[in-house]
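Protocol step 4 of 5: obtain the predicted structure for the target chain.
Materials: sequence only (see below). No template structures provided, no constraints applied. The aim of this step is simply to have a reference model before the mutagenesis design in step 5. Sequence pasted as it appears in the construct record:
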Amino acid sequence: MHDIKAIRDNPEAFDRGLARRGLAPMSAEVLALDSERREHVQKLQDAQARRNAVSKEVGEAMKAGDRPRAEALKAEVASIKDFVTSGEETERELDAGLASMLAAIPNIPFDDVPDGKDEHGNVEVRRWGAPPQRNFESRQHFDIGEWLGLMDFDTAAKIAGARFVVMRGQLARLERALAMFMLDHQTGVNGYTEHFVPLIVKDEAMFGTGQLPKFADDQFRTMDGRWLIPTAEVSLTNLVREKVLEEKDLPLRFTAYTPCFRLEAGAAGRDTRGMIRQHQFTKVELVSITTPETSRDELERMTQCAESILQKLGLHYRVMRLCAGDMGFGSRMTYDLEVWLPGQKAFREISSCSVCGDFQARRMEARYKPADGKGTRYVHTLNGSGLAVGRTLIAVLENYQNADGSVTIPEALRSYMGGLEKITRG
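Step 4 output (structure tokens):
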């Protein structure tokens, strides 16, 4: 949610930010509705002041025995009361209209976010590691999993439809091992606090993190009107909803391992085979709650925490700073981690770390008390994947595959796999 005062103070900057996202100027439309609302509120305040004054005059007229004047003044009071009653309803409608308009507008990029319309405008920041060198043709993850007899898309389609998978045996265990390794590392090394959170949430929670109202069609909804979470970001960020925190307690760093559900799993016809884009997947999510002064540094830290998982697994990756036209709705700056997939001969996104400023906090009414004790301020929120578990499994399969079809288990995961060193066809 945007700060209407900031738009009033600098509408040109607001429109420039929208233009960088490829959107038309909106400040004039927003400020016109805001002006109408403010003028109406002023009329109500003036009417209320007049009613108070007239009510006092009624008493004076009655005291003076001027009954005709008293009756005329009473009629005016009644008329003003009717105007105020109907005007309060109009005020609520104007408030709701302005809030609805602001809620549909994406966040404004930081000045140092690269310009660009889409992924082609993203800028590489750094790389780590190198692609595996092998003397055989790398296969894609679905070919590996199906050859092992441990990945079954046909049965999943019979059960649930397209974009689902059934994994069994050591491959199912590998998915669990990855999640446990990620959680242990993010809590024990990187200082995040693990949470068990709801997978089904109310409208208010989805609105708070920006999934509603704009992305309602991308979500799974329950029959009682609640929503399956598309990411644990929703539940974790809303932990501070409608709270006033103490500055001394910040930053807060949360993590959770959950299933995630997305009705829109990607562009039509893209990644239709395999596990890259699915309606159901698992993820270890990272969320930070900070002060405005520390949120940019926290973004760098969060990104490095996500990178540390890839480094421990020995997976080649690159860090991309997203351009303004490719960032998510609530982000002011985003880093994508893209892991190398030998089977695809391409880098693919495995984590996205974003700082949202006070955009989500305004939607959630999440504040903190500064150390100086002067009033309250909105917190800043950040979120990122630490990592997407299914995509990490894909990366392990493709990077650790062997010529005979087996898959070597990365050393960091072997204790979670009961000492197993290799997955073979059974």
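Step 4 remarks: Residues 27-64 form the longest helix (38 residues). The two ends are 54 Å apart (CA to CA).
Proceed to step 5.
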